[in-house]
Amino acid sequence: MESIWLKEVSFQKRSSLHKDLKTDVVIIGAGITGILTAYFLKKKGFRTVVLEADRICGGQTKGTTAKITSQHNLIYDRLIRVYGEEKARHYAEMNEWAIREYERIIAEKRIACDFVKCSANLYSCMEEEPLQREAEAARRLGISAQFKTECELPFAVKGVLEFRGQARFHPLKFLKELAEGMEIYEETPVLKVEHCGAGNNFVTAGNASVSAGKVIFACHFPFVNIPGYYFARMYQERSYVIALEHAAKLQECYLGIDQNGYSFRQEGDLLLLGGGSHRTGDNRQGGKYQMLRNEAARLWPGCREEAYWSAQDCMTLDQIPYIGAFDKKAQDWYVATGFGKWGMTSAMVSARILSDLLEGKEVTQAEIFSPQRRICMAAVKELVVNGGVAAGNLAKQLLSPKRTEEGTEEGKSFEVSVKCPHLGCKLSWNPDEHTWECPCHGSRFDSRGRLLDGPAQRGIRKEKN
Ligand code: FES
């Protein structure tokens, strides 16, 4: 089912790329990151072309819960311990700036996008201590944060950490205005990106190509494996949302930090209840939507479900996005990915860092986001775990006697190859979404085998139906 954002906004259809072009910058991906970056670059005088495999905002942007917040779960206490106070401050400052920048652009362009200032809160029903530590860390970094023991949620909590001055909005209403007049080509999947010398890059999309001085990968998960090796440095998580009528009207946004904690966020008369996060490819049992429905019925008997949908997030080894130069070996290429659950502020931060870098400006606060940063010990462990998961699933595929399996949708069965076309891991069925998912790096395919999400670049062969 579609998210509530798509019910209210439709984008004017743009043509696909039919002729060769030359430009200053080509951006791959017309989601929130691509559009914001194109907006910043246009203001700086760059000719920018955006190539989108699907429709504008047809990827992960349409599935967001659109909380504009610097509160990224429990992060600041850990950032100070792992990377030191200065770098942690840079992370906080950039994300706090992102909130103000949304407000500034919306006011300047008078965009009617339901922008509401509100607090963002972390809550726990089990313990106070992590929230108190995080409150102290956030205050040290200049964030307006306070620990409380009460809030408007309809159940008892042990503690709440409130960040003031945060916001929420309708992401597609905002992006529709911003995308006006941009050179965007839809249904134009990029097949190949080549570096042919300094300032000379060649992007092949369908039967046409774009020659560009710089290339920005804003396509959620970069599909180029080498250089960059992003497939070894990220995995993906899927989470679920239901939109409820006749539930509580909450003023503020909430995220539970306990295992199986929920997310709550008001949008007009609807309350968005989210949760059920899992590594993509690890939901063979299903039941995620049902879990949310059970919780909704327990908290607000008589509430009605208006919509349900799911979203996918790229998770990095140290939970900090990769924003900056793509790789030392790929001069002129840039990337913005690995936003975790925090796509709104991370997209704005990306637009600023990337547009400044392309202009040749030094960005002091950018170092903490650099894809080439030195990773911490915890990230090394994560790298090993990630590699283990990939190796295990690759072995499963190699050892499996079954090359094809059946998935069912609307009573019909479809048999497809269960070998992921990205790097060959074994796909698994997600009964909640009726999709085939790859546990290694998160590619997804519909029941008929058509590609939904990368890094894979093609679908899985249908054997019969
Ligand atoms: Fe990489 Fe499937 S997404 S092997």
Please characterize this protein's 3D structure.
- With 465 residues, this protein is an alpha+beta fold.
- Among the domains are: 4-64 and 173-232 and 319-375, FAD/NAD(P)-binding domain; 379-463, Rieske [2Fe-2S] iron-sulphur domain (Rieske Iron-sulfur Protein, 3-layer Sandwich).
- It has ten helices and 24 strands.
- The chain has helices spanning 4-8, 32-43, 76-83, 85-108, 129-140, 171-179, 230-233, 288-299, 343-358, 377-399; strands at 21-28, 48-51, 67-68, 116-124, 145-148, 159-168, 183-185, 190-195, 201-205, 208-217, 234-245, 253-256, 263-267, 270-279, 304-316, 322-325, 333-337, 404-409, 412-417, 428-430, 435-437, 444-446, 451-453, 462-464.
- Strands 3, 4, 5, 6, 11, 12, 13, 14 and 15 form a nine-stranded mixed beta sheet that branches. Strands 1, 2, 7, 8, 9, 10, 16 and 17 form an eight-stranded mixed beta sheet that branches.
- A hairpin with a 4-residue loop joins strand 20 (428-430) and strand 21.
- Helix 3 crosses helix 4 (85-108).
- The longest helix has 24 residues, at 85-108.
- The chain is globular, with a radius of gyration of 22 Å.
- The chain binds FE2/S2 (inorganic) cluster.
Task: Give the topology, please.
Elements: H1 4-8, E1 21-28, H2 32-43, E2 48-51, E3 67-68, H3 76-83, H4 85-108, E4 116-124, H5 129-140, E5 145-148, E6 159-168, H6 171-179, E7 183-185, E8 190-195, E9 201-205, E10 208-217, H7 230-233, E11 234-245, E12 253-256, E13 263-267, E14 270-279, H8 288-299, E15 304-316, E16 322-325, E17 333-337, H9 343-358, H10 377-399, E18 404-409, E19 412-417, E20 428-430, E21 435-437, E22 444-446, E23 451-453, E24 462-464
Parallel strand pairs: 1-2, 1-10, 2-7, 4-12, 10-17
Antiparallel strand pairs: 3-6, 4-6, 5-6, 8-9, 9-10, 11-14, 11-15, 12-13, 13-14, 16-17, 18-19, 19-24, 20-21, 21-22, 22-23
Helix pairs in contact: 2-6, 2-9, 3-4, 4-9
